[in-house]
Design a protein that fits this description.
single chain; about 200 residues; alpha+beta; four-stranded antiparallel sheet; 10 strands; about 40% helix; globular
Length: about 200
Amino acid sequence: MTINSDLLLSRGAIRKKAPKGRVLFYEGDEPHFYYQIVSGRIRMVNTSDTGKEFIQGLFGPGESFGEPALLTRQSYPAAAIADEDCLLLRLPRAPFVALLKEDPELLFGFTCHLAGRLRQKSILSREMCCSEPATLITGVLRQHAAGCPPSVNGRIKVILTRQQIANLTGLRVETVIRTIRSMYRRGDVVLEKGKVYV
């Protein structure tokens, strides 16, 4: 859900640039701000002791991230990293909470948005229990294609790299590559110039 930029700015939000690779907050940090993306993309990740990333979510223009921790006043469960150069709106917690309390329609929309995200996580968690990589990858591809307009022959271009798909599913990148090739041979996806279309 996108909150009107002018409304956020009128409540004290500031525009903040985050170059690619910038960490906005780390796992375990205390939340202080509402973040909404104007341009660019943010990934929220957990990193193992060996440096392997597990992507909890990818967020693009118009989307917000990190709100559950902000609203519950609990530490962030994952780090937020700029996946590419970003422009963000950042609003302190107090005026953000006041805005939600003052506008029941906005609060309801925001609650529905968070409920939708929770539902997607539940579906992905269910699919992660599946031992079949193709089922898991298909779920991730569909989730990230939802709401995107078709671009080629009625298909939607997947903006995720093979490594990101691996990081979202917990699979090895080699398994992702092999499985996508099998899905292509079966006609489940289209491959064109290295890009995947669903």
